[in-house]
Amino acid sequence: MFRTLFGFAVLAVVGIFLLKVVFGLFGFALALFIRLLIWAAFGFCIYLVIKILSPSTAGKIRETVTGKP
Questions:
Q1: What is the pTM of this model?
Q2: How far is 68 from 61, CA to CA, in rounded Å?
């Protein structure tokens, strides 16, 4: 009886540890994705302002990023 109870307790501790590791990695990946998304939105806003103010410069930026056709 004590052996079974001890086995369930060890299994619970290992399970909690694994859940913390998995959700920790998931949280890190989610935070990284959100940070990259914010930087991409920021860059898009800057590009949009440049496109409105100087379309030729925006064309040069687009050509530099995508390459010449």
A1: 0.61
A2: 11
In tens, the pLDDT along 22-58 reads: 998 998 999 999 999 999 999 999 999 999 999 999 8
Residue 43 CB-density burial (10 A; 0-12 exposed, 13-18 middle, 19+ buried): exposed
C-alpha to C-alpha distances, 10 to 16, 23, 60, 64, nearest whole angstrom: 10, 20, 62, 58
Name the amino acid, one letter, at 63. E
Maximum alpha-carbon separation in the chain:
79
Tracing tokens 């056709």 back to the chain, one arrives at: 69
- The domain locations on the chain are 2-66
